[in-house]
Amino acid sequence: MAGLSGLLGLTETQAAELQPVRFVEPNGLTLLVLEQHALPILQLHALVKVGSAQDPPEKAGLANLVASLLDEGTTTRSATQIAGQIDFVGGNLAIKTEEDFTSASVRVLAKDTDLGFDLLADVLLRPAFAEAEVERIRTLILGEILSQKDEPGMVAGKAFNQLVFDGHPYRWPVNGTEDTVPGITPEEIRQFHAREYLPNQTILAIVGDITIKEARSLVAKHFGAWERGSALPRSVSRATPIEKPVTKFIEKDLTQATIMLGHLGISRTNPDYYAVSVMNYILGAGGFSSRLMESIRDKQGLAYGVMSSFEANLMPGAFAVSLQTRNETANQALAAVLSELKGIRETPVSDQELADAKAYLIGSFPLRLDTTQKLAQVLSLVEFFGLGLDYFTHYPRWIEQVTKDQVFRVAQQYLHPDRYALVLVGNLEKANVDQKTP
Amino acid sequence: MRRPRRDGSSHSLWWVLPSLLFIAASVANPTGSPVQAGEIRESAQEFVLANGMKVLLAEVPKAPVATIQIWYRVGSRHEVMGRAGLSHMLEHMMFKGTTTHPKGTFSRTIRKNGGNDNAFTSQDFTAYFEILAADRVELALELEADRMRHVIFDEQEFQLEREVVKEERRLRTEDDPQSYLVESLFAQAFMVHPYHWPVIGWFQDLNAMTLEDLKRHYDRYYVPNNATLVIVGDIKASALLPVIKRLFEPIPKGPTPPQPTVVEPDQLGERRIIVKREAQVPFLMVGYRVPNYRNNDSYALTILESILSQGKSSRLYQRLVYDQKLALAVGASYSLLQADPELFYSYVVVKPGQKIEAVEQALYRELERLQTDLVTAQELQRAKNQVEADYVFGLDSNFRQAMLLGQSETVGAGWRHVGQFLKRMRDVTAEDVRRVARQYFLEDKRTVGILVPIQRTD
């Protein structure tokens, strides 16, 4: 590799040169604007601070149902008219609910800028929630919930959250359950929207071929009449950690066992986030360079993929290792996972591993920001988590400052190979994993 | 809802192949000044090295990054009966190291330089890529040049990797009822042509494969005169070309690799395949054999696909999901960028409680409506606007641009086809759409696949 050595070291990127501007409008709407004039494209990304975590447990799926109805008719347009208008200009309107927030995004050519603002404002401010549309979308969501039973990863993920987030708002699937979705009333939907969809609870990121002046004036025109409301206080809580290994095995006639193993992790605002990122990269997020991949795929040929992840949400999310292996090798793969979890807690990572992980995380940062779509999304998250608009300059520094000792400490602090939730979906007889002490 | 597709297979789970539908365009914008929709500039620069390797470079300075892709004209289409999956298996072996860069160093080197790398295999091609900061392009080129001819074929590594590929097959196909049906349908629709078998191969063929098979495939197809190098990003072609020549030109030209000449015989009557397995909802898929880019009808078929399935205002969504409430999800798929004529297919995820037979008839009614009535001016314009907007949105991604250049070139259309495509698309008339619907959506020419869910008996 001698010939390549001159190329190593950190890349100075233009990421640091991204200079979005931030405004708070009179009604409390937070506005982030980033001019990008290379292409005649406009990306709008609205993040409303309400997600499935705000669903009452007996109404799981409420936030998602509300969001799914936003573009299914407003007081000024029918569902068909909304679809017709965005499709006619070749644009895209997408709405998605997650645990902590709901995002509504619009992508149009710059010539259709006004329409883009108009449609986004219409669906956020004036959804009609007509009874027929409520029932239609409810049926589609129930169908989706049913279809997800054919996806082993989905089945495992839902069971895993039940174990890790017992008694916590993250416990339920974002789209709800077969028991809860039928019971959500149109009145509850309307009330939820009126209560939660407030300008002072919304971040609007605007990226693309638009000037700051134009953006502000269009925001005033389309969102100016949106009335501020009193935002309900959010309770931030941490799920109760698991005390000993708990398991959930689900019988399904499949050739592979889908395995998830993990426990409670960290929130996005945890100061250890950056050290955890480096540690997790080495453990199981580093693609073909990760320890889990090397052991389970490269050395043993047990799986096509294996990875570990920390879902760093507003509240502590899950740490999970997930993989699929044929039923007969489930025990062997599980042993390898536990061995790697123990290994990184017992011995500090090597200097080379640390350097490689940091080089990747810093060097690949601009790749996460290379389209208007990615930029708008990242900007809204930076604001949501309160990371500051100088995040783009700071991120590489924060990663660079992570030490070997910190990686060692966070491995010991945030990985628990003695108390975890284990979910297995597959042919249980062939997998033959001990349900008590695997 | 997932969109069932006949994907290529790839090296890593986390790499999802972008849609191969013709939705992005290849023409980069050299000046950085705004491109207007509909304005097409030819800014990729083409070079042919002394050994026959083609090089396509597009300078896109909007972000300090670049995508490098090297495309080989070899996929499941170049395989023979009994060795289905050989090209994809070979793709996996390409990560097993060379004499100068031992196993594991390829991805590790790219990653510690802040880049991502992976590969994907399809029916018509195998492609390898790196996405990096623009000042690291040379590093990727050095590694790619090295593995074009110097991969180590080790028996033990092959045995292990075969197990990995079998896990991939279990994951993507065996345990996924809809993918399983898609695979079965293609095997019915193509009886002679290699599109008959899946890119990932059958278990039996994977088990029968030998290291010798892989070496032979590698020696035959991994030669510079069977490859196209595509780089899109913040590069300067004039500065990069000497580097490319230095790294790739020493690789000797090989004999021209054989190309399959199989022509699928005419279909004489409907074919129907039923799959019964544990599943939650029925799934219906109907495929018609249609021409590829070589035939001018491909433009009208592309517009037709958009009218039928793109967006919630499309016909299938409006009729089957919105009005008649027969389906949870609907779609259609057609790509003119296939080396040989393939399928135009529509699919329906049937809503629980609805009869599959009724849903099938409803789908045919929509196809018949395209044969009897002209599409409206509004629908036609919408489809054209969608194609053009997607073209401009595609310019935002180096990867999508490189994909389209590489795919157009490798399937034989040539990368300049993109410009022609956009012009020809605008000329499609409502009469053209009706004519192709009448010509290709024939009962005797269709292959129908139905997934019938059965309940576990325990």
How much β-strand is present in the residues of chain A?
Answer: 15-25%
Structural class of chain A: alpha+beta
- Proportion of beta-strand residues of chain B: 15-25%
Which H/E pattern describes the elements of chain B? EEEEHHEEHHHHHEHEEHHEEHHHHHE
Strand order in the largest sheet of chain B: 1-5-6-4-7-3-2
- What's the gyration radius of chain A in Å? 23 Å
Number of strands of chain B: 12
* Side-by-side strand order of the widest sheet of chain A: 1-2-6-3-5-4
* Quaternary form: heterodimer
Describe this structure as you would to a colleague.
The complex is a heterodimer of chains A (438) and B (458). By secondary structure, chain A is an alpha+beta fold. Chain A has helices spanning 62-69, 79-88, 113-125, 131-147, 152-164, 186-196, 212-223, 273-285, 291-299, 330-346, 351-363, 372-384, 391-400, 404-414, 428-431; strands spanning 21-24, 30-35, 41-48, 92-97, 102-109, 202-208, 246-251, 256-264, 306-312, 316-326, 421-426. In chain A, a hairpin with a 5-residue loop joins strand 1 (21-24) and strand 2. Chain A is globular. Chain A starts with 20 loop residues before the first strand and ends in a 7-residue tail after the last helix. With 458 residues, chain B is an alpha+beta fold. Chain B has helices at residues 86-93, 105-112, 137-149, 155-174, 177-189, 203-208, 211-221, 237-248, 297-309, 315-323, 356-372, 377-394, 398-410, 417-426, 430-440, and strands spanning 9-10, 45-48, 54-59, 65-72, 116-121, 126-133, 227-233, 271-278, 283-289, 327-333, 343-350, 446-454. In chain B, the strands form 2 sheets. In chain B, strands 1-5-6-4-7-3-2 form a 7-stranded mixed β-sheet, sandwiched between helices. A 5-stranded mixed β-sheet of chain B has the order 8-12-9-11-10, with helices on both faces. In chain B, strand 2 (45-48) and strand 3 form a beta hairpin. In chain B, helix 9 crosses helix 12 (377-394), helix 9 (297-309) crosses helix 15 (430-440) and helix 10 (315-323) runs antiparallel to helix 11 (356-372). Mean pLDDT of chain B is 90; it is low at 1-8 and 11-41. Classes of the chains: A alpha+beta (438), B alpha+beta (458). The interface between A and B is large, with 79 and 86 residues.
